[in-house]
Specification:
By secondary structure, the protein is α/β, with parallel strands linked by helices. The protein has one domain: TIM Barrel. The protein is built from 13 helices and 17 strands. The protein has a seven-stranded parallel β-sheet. Strands 8-9-10-11 form a four-stranded antiparallel β-sheet, with no helix packed on it. Strand 8 and strand 9 form a beta hairpin. The longest helix has 26 residues. The chain is globular, with a radius of gyration of 20 Å.
Length: about 400
């Protein structure tokens, strides 16, 4: 069975030949550049490690690695993945831990007196900062909700013709020259809940609770822009893409950020409008990345039009994989849920990783409706032996019918 066929079979809640696998198909199922470089050394693969996501310092996963671990998914991203910096004109650079990488030519961080790195807007405003010896950049911008932007004058990013032409060329190449399932990020200009508070999340939470009229006026503008981008995107690449992705984080490790009731009243109608457009006008499956303890939201997410839920943070409160499969497995595809990304994968033994992967595949894979992936991105401190054990176990025990 070819990869694209395998993924679509699983998304249609049927059992393919084996569990489909995602390694780096999204910016939430990727791998930190330093961990990726060590993994390649472990496997005897000598090639430059490129950082395609400068925000999270994620590596571009190369074809030999995808094939080695049985990956079935590939991402379609814009040229400028993070901070408006285009992925081109690659140049050598080193991470704080000494890992040699290649970065886009337009990446020009300024080293501050304390050793931190800052990216600046063209007008001199600081955009993002990585602390000395850090692993990621922290955004410094206030997004519209926290900044209390005027919805009537807010300028929103719409896909340009250049971006559409580049996306079409890339999507057609992936579709015709590989058999991977293609997943593309295409959510609202900002995450309707979490993303609007970037830079001052507490201020956004107060606004959300106290100014519902303002919040809904802002959501109207964002949803209009989202649907226009969906129209443009579908016209450009609709025949080559199988899955569209959007992100929003509704939960902490132990509880939701907000009540399901508030979500339904303020946020649900606008997400549903966009997802309804997708389901009415395209063949795309809808993938939502949503961290944390979100069990109580899942019925609403299904009603909203979500087909695929990621990352399945099994260590968050209430996110037991067997319970999730039993209650929602006939209506929702689970994407992720490999093993504990906070303890087992970075700090366990390969045997412990394998045992946890086996248990989660046994819980989530029967009947289809499951794609194997890391629980969010593989972090910089994960040993290559554990990463190898995770994917090799998925390949060995993920054959249908599942017999564990």
């Amino acid at each position: 069975m070819l990869s694209r066929e395998r993924v679509l079979c699983a998304l249609n809640h049927q059992e393919p030949d084996r569990v489909p696998i995602d390694l780096g198909g999204t910016r939430q199922s990727g791998i930190a550049a330093s961990a990726y470089h060590r993994l390649k050394q472990h496997l005897g693969i000598d090639s430059p490690t490129r950082v395609y996501d400068l925000y999270q310092m994620l590596a571009e996963v190369e074809r030999p690695i995808l094939e080695r671990f049985g990956a079935d998914v590939i991402g379609l991203n814009r040229k400028a993945v993070a901070f408006g910096i285009r992925n081109e004109d690659w140049k050598p650079w080193r991470l704080f831990d000494g890992t040699p990488v290649e970065v886009p030519g337009g990446f020009r961080p300024v080293e501050e007196e304390d050793g931190s790195l800052t990216l600046y807007h063209p007008d001199g405003r600081p955009m993002a900062r990585m602390p000395k010896d850090g692993l990621y950049f922290d955004r410094l911008d206030k997004y519209p909700g926290a900044a209390h932007a005027d919805p009537d004058t807010l300028e929103l990013p719409l896909l340009s013709q250049q971006e559409l032409d580049e996306l079409r060329a890339a999507a057609e190449a992936l579709y015709r020259n590989t058999d991977f399932a293609v997943v593309a990020p295409m959510g609202p200009p900002y995450e309707l809940f979490f993303g609007l508070g970037t830079g001052d999340f507490s201020a956004w939470m107060i606004t959300l609770a106290q100014e519902p009229d303002y919040v809904q006026a802002l959501y109207e503008r964002l949803t209009e822009a989202w649907i226009e981008n969906l129209r443009r995107f579908t016209s450009a690449v609709g025949e080559f893409v199988q899955i569209v992705q959007f992100n929003d984080d509704l939960g902490t490790q132990d509880a939701p950020f907000l009540s399901p009731r508030m979500f339904r009243r303020l946020i649900f109608p606008f997400y549903k409008r966009g997802l309804d457009w997708i389901h009415e006008h395209t063949h795309f499956k809808v993938f939502m990345h949503n961290d944390g303890a979100i069990f109580d939201f899942i019925p609403t997410l299904i009603e909203m039009g979500v087909d695929i839920l990621n990352p399945i943070q099994t260590t968050a409160r209430g996110m037991d994989p067997r319970r999730l499969k039993e209650q929602f497995g006939d209506r929702l595809t689970f994407w992720g849920g490999s093993c504990d990304c906070q303890r087992t994968l970075p700090f366990g033994t390969p045997e412990q990783v394998a045992a946890e992967v086996e248990a989660h595949i046994a819980a989530l894979a029967p009947g289809g409706g499951y794609v194997f992936a890391s629980v969010h991105n593989i972090q910089a401190n994960c040993p290559p032996e554990n990463i190898t054990a995770m994917f090799d176990t998925a390949l060995s025990v993920g054959r249908y019918p599942i017999r564990l």
